[in-house]
Amino acid sequence: MDKIINTSGKRKTAVARATLRTGKGRIRINTVPLEIYSTELVRMKISEPLMLLPGALEDVDVSIDVRGGGVMGQAEAIRTALGRGILAWHNDPKIKEMYLGYDRTLLVNDSRQKEKKKPHGRGARKKFQKSYR
User: Fold this and answer.
1) Which of 47, 64, 113, 118 minimizes the number of CB atoms within 10 Å of its CB?
2) Contact call for residues 9 and 84 (beta carbons, < 8 A)
3) Residue ranges of the chain with pLDDT lower than 50?
4) Using CA atoms, how far apart are residues 38 and 40, in angstroms rounded to an integer?
5) CA dist., res. 94 & res. 66, Å (int)
6) What domains lie within the chain, and their CATH numbers?
7) Rounded to the nearest 5°, which phi and psi values hold at 128?
Protein backbone atom coordinates (compact mmCIF):
# COMPACT_ATOMS: atom_id res chain seq x y z
CA MET A 1 0.00 0.00 0.00
CA ASP A 2 1.37 3.38 -1.04
CA LYS A 3 1.61 6.00 1.68
CA ILE A 4 0.06 9.33 0.54
CA ILE A 5 -0.17 12.54 2.55
CA ASN A 6 -1.98 15.73 1.50
CA THR A 7 -1.19 19.06 3.16
CA SER A 8 -1.84 22.71 2.40
CA GLY A 9 -0.35 26.09 3.19
CA LYS A 10 -1.68 29.63 2.81
CA ARG A 11 -0.20 33.12 2.72
CA LYS A 12 -2.28 36.20 1.80
CA THR A 13 -4.28 34.96 -1.23
CA ALA A 14 -1.83 32.19 -2.25
CA VAL A 15 -2.85 28.59 -1.58
CA ALA A 16 -0.43 25.66 -1.95
CA ARG A 17 -1.51 22.01 -1.91
CA ALA A 18 1.20 19.39 -1.43
CA THR A 19 0.94 15.66 -2.05
CA LEU A 20 3.67 13.41 -0.63
CA ARG A 21 4.05 9.80 -1.79
CA THR A 22 6.82 7.22 -1.83
CA GLY A 23 9.24 7.79 -4.71
CA LYS A 24 12.74 8.96 -5.59
CA GLY A 25 13.01 12.32 -3.80
CA ARG A 26 11.63 14.59 -6.54
CA ILE A 27 9.98 17.90 -5.66
CA ARG A 28 7.79 19.49 -8.31
CA ILE A 29 5.91 22.78 -8.10
CA ASN A 30 3.18 23.12 -10.74
CA THR A 31 5.00 20.26 -12.59
CA VAL A 32 8.30 22.25 -12.60
CA PRO A 33 11.23 20.72 -10.65
CA LEU A 34 12.32 22.75 -7.61
CA GLU A 35 15.88 23.03 -9.01
CA ILE A 36 14.73 25.23 -11.91
CA TYR A 37 11.68 26.87 -10.29
CA SER A 38 11.61 30.71 -10.30
CA THR A 39 14.54 32.71 -8.83
CA GLU A 40 17.24 31.63 -6.39
CA LEU A 41 15.74 33.70 -3.56
CA VAL A 42 12.36 31.97 -3.98
CA ARG A 43 14.03 28.54 -4.16
CA MET A 44 15.94 29.25 -0.94
CA LYS A 45 12.73 30.34 0.80
CA ILE A 46 10.92 27.18 -0.32
CA SER A 47 13.77 24.83 0.64
CA GLU A 48 14.11 26.10 4.24
CA PRO A 49 12.22 23.11 5.74
CA LEU A 50 14.48 20.79 3.69
CA MET A 51 17.70 22.50 4.84
CA LEU A 52 16.70 22.18 8.50
CA LEU A 53 16.21 18.43 8.03
CA PRO A 54 18.68 17.14 5.40
CA GLY A 55 17.65 13.82 3.86
CA ALA A 56 14.05 14.12 5.07
CA LEU A 57 12.59 13.47 1.61
CA GLU A 58 15.13 11.05 0.07
CA ASP A 59 12.48 8.42 -0.71
CA VAL A 60 9.50 10.77 -1.07
CA ASP A 61 8.10 12.46 -4.19
CA VAL A 62 6.42 15.80 -3.50
CA SER A 63 3.95 17.34 -5.95
CA ILE A 64 2.87 20.89 -5.07
CA ASP A 65 0.10 22.83 -6.79
CA VAL A 66 0.03 26.55 -5.98
CA ARG A 67 -2.49 29.19 -7.07
CA GLY A 68 -3.16 32.87 -6.34
CA GLY A 69 -1.10 35.64 -4.81
CA GLY A 70 2.33 36.87 -5.84
CA VAL A 71 5.74 35.24 -6.11
CA MET A 72 6.77 35.50 -2.44
CA GLY A 73 3.25 34.79 -1.14
CA GLN A 74 3.27 31.57 -3.17
CA ALA A 75 6.78 30.72 -1.93
CA GLU A 76 5.72 31.07 1.71
CA ALA A 77 2.55 29.04 1.10
CA ILE A 78 4.65 26.27 -0.50
CA ARG A 79 7.08 26.40 2.42
CA THR A 80 4.25 25.92 4.93
CA ALA A 81 2.72 23.04 2.93
CA LEU A 82 6.15 21.37 2.63
CA GLY A 83 6.92 21.78 6.35
CA ARG A 84 3.56 20.31 7.33
CA GLY A 85 4.03 17.47 4.84
CA ILE A 86 7.46 16.53 6.23
CA LEU A 87 6.06 16.59 9.76
CA ALA A 88 3.07 14.40 8.80
CA TRP A 89 5.29 11.96 6.87
CA HIS A 90 7.77 11.36 9.71
CA ASN A 91 5.30 11.94 12.58
CA ASP A 92 8.15 12.95 14.93
CA PRO A 93 7.55 15.50 17.75
CA LYS A 94 11.25 16.53 17.58
CA ILE A 95 10.71 17.82 14.03
CA LYS A 96 7.72 19.89 15.15
CA GLU A 97 9.73 21.31 18.04
CA MET A 98 12.63 22.22 15.74
CA TYR A 99 10.39 23.85 13.09
CA LEU A 100 8.49 25.90 15.68
CA GLY A 101 11.76 26.96 17.28
CA TYR A 102 13.19 28.09 13.94
CA ASP A 103 10.13 29.80 12.43
CA ARG A 104 6.48 29.32 13.39
CA THR A 105 5.25 29.99 9.83
CA LEU A 106 6.76 26.66 8.70
CA LEU A 107 3.77 24.95 10.32
CA VAL A 108 1.23 27.74 10.94
CA ASN A 109 -0.47 29.82 8.24
CA ASP A 110 0.00 33.58 8.44
CA SER A 111 -3.41 34.81 9.62
CA ARG A 112 -2.97 38.40 8.38
CA GLN A 113 -5.42 39.46 5.70
CA LYS A 114 -6.01 42.56 3.62
CA GLU A 115 -7.93 45.27 5.48
CA LYS A 116 -11.33 46.03 3.96
CA LYS A 117 -11.75 49.19 1.88
CA LYS A 118 -13.88 51.83 3.59
CA PRO A 119 -16.09 54.56 2.07
CA HIS A 120 -14.76 58.11 1.41
CA GLY A 121 -11.36 56.91 0.23
CA ARG A 122 -9.37 54.89 -2.28
CA GLY A 123 -8.40 52.10 0.12
CA ALA A 124 -8.56 50.96 3.72
CA ARG A 125 -6.98 54.08 5.26
CA LYS A 126 -6.53 56.68 2.52
CA LYS A 127 -9.20 59.40 2.32
CA PHE A 128 -10.13 61.73 -0.54
CA GLN A 129 -8.70 65.25 -0.13
CA LYS A 130 -10.93 68.18 0.76
CA SER A 131 -10.14 71.88 0.31
CA TYR A 132 -13.07 74.02 1.69
CA ARG A 133 -12.28 76.79 -0.83
Assistant:
1) 113
2) yes
3) none
4) 7
5) 28
6) 4-106 (3.30.230.10)
7) -70, 145
